[in-house]
Structures are given as C-alpha cells and as structure tokens.
Amino acid sequence: MFIFYLFLLFIILQRICELVIAKRNEVWMKKRGAKEFGQSHYRIIVFIHTMFFIIYLLEVKIWQTELSPVWPYLLSLFILTQILRIWAILSLGKCWNTKIIILPGVQIVEKGPYRFLKHPNYLVVAIEFIIIPIMFQAYFTAFLFTILNGAILAIRIPAEEKALNELTEYPISAWLKFKNLKNVNKA
Which pLDDT score is estimated for 182? Predict the structure, then answer.
C-alpha cells in the first residue's frame, strides 16, 4: 500500500502545482484583458477531478487491490502522458490554464504538441483516468471517470473552441461548423 499512497501523493502534489501555475497565469492574462468562459461547467470539472481521487482511494482501500501485474507498462505510459502534459503547458506558456481564459487577438499556439492536436491536455487527462486507476486495479474508478470525463469534455471542448473562435483567429472546428450549419438549416 505504501507504493499506492506514494503514487497518489505524487499525482495530488502535481495537480496542486498545476493549480498554482494556472492561478498565476490567470492573474497575468486578466491584467491584459483576457476573458473567462465556461465558469458554470468548470465547477463540474473540479468536482469530477476531486471525486476521482476520493473514489480511487476508496476503491483501492476497500477492495484491497494491489499493483497491477502489468504496472511497468502502465507506468511507462503514465510517464509519457506526463511528458506530453509538461510539453503542452510549456508550449502555451502564460496562456496555459485549467479554465477557459482567452486573451482577445492572441496568436494561436501552433508549436509543441499543438502542431498535432488541438487539445493535447484533454487527451492526457483521458488517458490518465484509465491508467492511474488500472495501475492499482481500480477498474470501477477507471470505468466511471472515463465516462464522466467524456461527458464533461463534450461540453468543455466546444465551449473552448467557441471562445477561441470568437476572440482569436482560431480555425473553426468541425463541431462548430456542424452546429452553425444546423442553425442555418433551422432558420
């Protein structure tokens, strides 16, 4: 169990560091006229991420699960996701945040992982919601939070894309094109 608690502590400390960076970036961006979007669903994201740790801890503790037999592979994948997370954060610099905060007219970042993916950090979180619980055979947590994360990202990503499209020269997403086409057809 010591390894589990150490692993969990590492992830929680990492998340706290990210929140500190996000808050610092938020202050910097808002001083320069940035606008915030998606406040109503952000609370749900925070709730989901908080409950993830609680449910994960309870599942491992109650069921006395152990380190997965395939843990070396899972740990390797976890490390790769952390490299991608850090790369995404560094690529966005002061514009990285856990909230949707957009500086009007800012140049869209097209370096780092953003050359290949529009939302690499969401991919990292999606993979983590599977890998982290499976590392200690917490399959219920992996299943439940993969579904919850998918549901909230179905709200979050369109909201972020819409905000970016409104305030920057962001290339419109296929989702927004489809939504606008549906609205045109209704008129």
Answer: 58
